[in-house]
Design a protein that fits this description.
It contains 29 helices and 31 strands. It has about 850 residues and is of the alpha/beta class. The strands form 5 sheets. The protein has an 8-stranded mixed beta sheet, sandwiched between helices. It binds adenosine-5'-diphosphate, aspartic acid and magnesium ion.
């Protein structure tokens, strides 16, 4: 028996679920390079569970065992029939199966009589699955080898004649001498043979049947590898390798191509089911590389677990274990008292309870530890008993048990000595709104663990996963109102998507688009280049609850609603979104300029739930008007006043109006060219400008309501109601009055401008004013916005922001920029 000669392969239950899987397994084995092969097999998928289920049923009484046995029998017989057909081996395989089933049935009956199963009986019943699958695979391989004329010998080996273990407190320990002696006898090692071995089961030192524990076939494979000094061990399963997180919970998980034994062990211990934690020891001892490969995608290279891995990435994977309780022992009397921890954990050890995680603050005021939930009642008793005297005297104040917790662990060798990783881990959890109950870091720095509420576990996994760039930073986007601005935004996002992904690892997924009556939900993401057609083909009636749930999908760590509508109704939903931790990005002014009560509540709720509310584009489209104001304030400047022209439409009207044509005609032309709202009164009333001023006022720290503003409406009083046409028809009657104002201004060398003013001392106003030609507001491009900030620092020479402040392209770009700001906040790299 020599190294590099033998190959060990192990096929898990998922690789042996049905006859098609067996064929796949045979293809892999018969195509393998010509070296002696040992194949360790699990039971057919679900079989061990079914057998253990029967044990539980039997414990309740004798009645319900028969149907379960029949179901097992029917499944196996069908598989034998399909794989072996008329082959005489079928009879042998079925005879052996029926004999086993008879024995199993006897044991189950015995259990049902005493209404309780001894460990040995349970192990015996559970272990039949491996006997059956391995016999069937052996017969099928023989048949196929014959048919393909490629392998001459296929042996079958019952692992109870090979692997000898002793059951200890920490689980089964291999008795190597006895096992080696068996191996010498049972592996004659012909150059070109396959030996099929039962996984999971073994003999104990008395020669009796035992098992290696749930998922123990991985361990079997590694033991066989060590016994044979194999060149490699391949664990074949149903995923492409060890993934950066459990793929059923983190769809973004990616294959880790290389990992060290230690990393794999840590991942396995903290819940990565793909490999059993005990597997590593025998392989490590003999430095045998372990490959994790996909039976259903054998071309994929898989993951290689070995001793010499240069760690390039700091974090390898993120895992979780559920079903955990957190116990907190608290008391001032513990401070500085040596031996408290020793007493505590000594007591737990004596009761056979394994502690998963320990965390003690350096004040020693409390010790906090995690145990399996099923042990928690016992743990509480044990601890109370151990500290009975202290509890009575008040030196220990409380023993608290919190149920329903999970542990999230970040694992990687490269974490050692890398400052900031823990901060990153916890800040990602914080931003995802996850409450961390306890923290522990192993001194190896290979693992940082956090205890969270079980219901947060999946979200925590996903947030941490994307936070560490195992996958691109992913943001689920719901777009509301694909009108001018919304459609332009989708176009801009489509054009930038690739570059953002490549350069910043940013992955925006528009998973929903809603109009006022319809919505399109996309499973992965809407194809932005083709969204109109997708909307046409797939839109359904709008249902806000479903829309929200879909965009705020469990498997994506962050969700954002982009509200490009101008709707009050949509603004009314922000509160609900914030409560769910969904961010909002919007050019819609309704919420930010709504009543103070609503405004305050919105900000309070979004803060509580770690949601962001970004609305730079509510004032001056993409111009940095709100951001500039925030920068001034946050850097300690004092803002004295803000004034400006905040409406592109009104800027245009008064730029064009030179007294030669009636004002009403200019309004009509502007409307026809799309420079005004569909109803020009929305612009002329000044309410739009007033809302912008309110937003700025609040950013400045002034608690103003819309009613507090002094607004001069340019809509004549009695024309406020009525249709748009009626309004446009009646407007010429007021041309003379406007012309008079213009003339007066013109005579004084002035022009008319519609100006918003906000001052610390003089409140806020929106008015048509006459300004001298030299005034900066007088010399403006057509639809430009201009804003002047006067502050303590900018007192003599005010700070001015000027430029195009309206139009779909710049507004959409501003919304896009807010989305990028959000991503940066959530942790995207720059
Ligand atoms: P087998 O039947 O082959 O023993 P298991 O079901 O025991 O397979 O283990 C494979 C499964 O482990 C995968 O299908 C996957 O859902 C789950 N899994 C959990 N965590 C991980 C991880 N980090 N990497 C890969 N698979 C994982
Ligand atoms: N069949 C056993 C189990 O399900 C062992 C294994 O599959 O690894 O636990
Ligand atoms: Mg397994």
């Amino acid at each position: 028996m020599g190294r590099d000669n033998w190959q060990v392969h192990k096929f898990g239950g998922s690789s042996l679920a049905d006859p098609a899987c067996f064929r796949q397994v045979a293809d892999i084995l018969l195509a393998a390079s010509p070296a002696p092969i040992a194949v360790v097999v699990s039971a057919m998928g679900g079989m061990t569970d079914a057998l253990l289920g029967l044990v539980t049923t039997a414990e309740q009484g004798p009645d319900d065992i028969a149907p379960g046995l029949e179901a097992i029998s029917a499944r196996y017989a069908a598989a034998v029939d399909e794989l072996l057909g008329e082959d005489p081996a079928a009879v042998e395989v079925l005879d052996a199966f029926r004999a086993d089933l008879g024995d199993a049935s006897d044991v189950l009956h015995a259990i049902s009589l005493v209404r309780s199963a001894a460990d040995r009986s349970r192990d015996l019943v559970a272990g039949y699955g491996e006997l059956w699958s391995s016999r069937l695979l052996t017969a099928y391989l023989r048949r196929e080898a014959g048919a393909r004329d490629c392998r001459t010998e296929v042996h079958w080996l019952d692992a109870r004649r090979l692997i000898v273990v002793e059951q200890r407190e920490m689980g089964p320990a291999v008795l190597w001498d006895a096992s080696h002696a068996n191996a010498a006898q049972h592996f004659p090692a012909p150059a070109d043979a396959i030996t099929v071995i039962t996984g999971f089961i073994a003999a104990d030192d008395a020669g009796l049947h035992t098992t290696l524990g749930r998922n123990g076939s991985d361990f079997s494979a590694s033991i066989v590898g060590a016994l044979l000094k194999a060149g490699s061990i391949s664990i074949w399963t149903d995923v492409d390798g060890v993934l950066s997180a459990d793929p059923s919970r983190v769809p973004e998980a990616a294959v880790i191509h290389q990992l060290s034994y230690n990393e794999a062990m840590e991942l396995a211990y903290f819940g990565a089911k793909v490999i059993h934690p005990q597997t590593m020891a025998p392989a490590v001892e003999h430095a045998i590389p372990i490959w994790i490969r996909n039976t259903f995608n054998p071309e994929a290279p898989g993951s290689c677990i070995s001793g010499d891995v240069e760690s390039s990435t700091q974090i390898k994977g993120i895992t979780s274990i559920g079903g955990v309780s957190l116990v907190n022992l608290e008391g001032a009397g513990m401070i500085g008292v040596p031996g408290t921890a020793d007493r505590l954990f000594g007591a737990l050890r004596e009761s056979g309870i394994s502690v998963i995680l320990i965390s003690q603050a350096s004040s020693e005021h409390s010790i906090c530890f995690a145990v399996p939930e099923r042990n928690s009642a016992m743990v509480e008793q044990v601890v109370r008993r151990a500290f009975a005297a202290e509890l009575e005297q008040g030196q220990v104040q409380s023993v608290e048990v919190q149920h329903g917790c999970s542990i999230i662990a970040v694992v990687g060798d490269g974490m050692a000595g890398m400052p900031g990783l823990a901060a990153k881990f916890f800040s990602t959890l914080g931003r995802a709104g996850i409450n961390v109950r306890a923290i522990a870091q192993g001194s190896s720095e290979r693992n940082i663990s956090a205890v969270v509420d079980a219901e947060d576990a999946t979200r925590a996994l996903r947030a941490a996963h994307s936070g560490f760039y195992l996958s691109a930073e992913t943001l689920s986007v719901g777009l509301i109102g694909p009108g001018n601005v919304g459609a332009m935004l989708l176009e801009q996002m489509a054009a930038q998507a690739k570059a953002l992904r490549a350069t910043f690892g940013l992955d925006f997924r528009v998973r929903g688009i809603a109009t006022s009556s319809q919505m399109l939900l996309a499973e992965a993401a809407v194809d932005l280049g083709n969204w109109r057609a997708e909307f046409k083909a797939g839109a359904e009636a709008l249902d806000w609850a479903r829309f929200t749930a879909h965009v705020n999908a469990e498997h994506l760590p962050h969700a954002v609603m982009v509200d490009c509508s101008a709707s009050d109704d949509v603004a009314g939903r922000y509160l609900d979104w914030f409560r769910q931790g969904v961010h909002v990005v919007t050019p819609n002014k309704k919420a930010a300029s709504g009543s103070l009560a609503v405004y305050d509540e919105l900000h309070a709720v979004r803060r509580r739930h770690n949601a962001r509310f970004l609305y730079e584009t509510t004032v001056g489209a993409a111009l940095p008007i709100i951001d500039t104001l925030r920068d001034l304030r946050q850097t300690g400047d004092d803002i004295v006043s803000i004034e400006g022209i905040f409406s592109g439409t009104l800027a245009y009207l008064f730029n064009v109006y030179d007294g030669s044509e009636p004002f009403s005609a200019i309004v009509r032309q502007a409307r026809d060219s799309g420079y005004t709202e569909p109803d020009p009164r929305d612009d002329l009333s000044g309410m739009d400008v007033a809302r912008k001023l309110i937003i700025l006022a609040r950013e400045m720290g002034q608690r103003l309501e819309l009613e507090d503003l002094d607004v001069e409406s340019l809509v004549p009083v009695h024309l406020g109601s009525g249709t748009i046409d009626e309004f446009l028809d009646a407007l010429p009657a007021h041309d003379a009055a406007m012309r008079e104002r213009w003339q007066a201004a013109s005579d004084a060398g002035q022009v008319l401008r519609y100006v918003g003013r906000l001052s610390r001392e003089h409140g806020a106003s929106v008015r048509l004013e006459a300004l001298p030609l030299a005034h900066p507001f007088a010399r403006m491009n057509l639809t430009d916005n201009i804003v002047r900030y006067v502050s303590r620092r900018y007192s003599d020479n005010p700070l001015v922001v000027q430029g195009p402040g309206a139009g779909p392209a710049v507004t959409a770009a501003g919304v896009f920029a807010d989305l990028l700001r959000l991503a940066a906040y959530l942790g995207a790299s720059r």
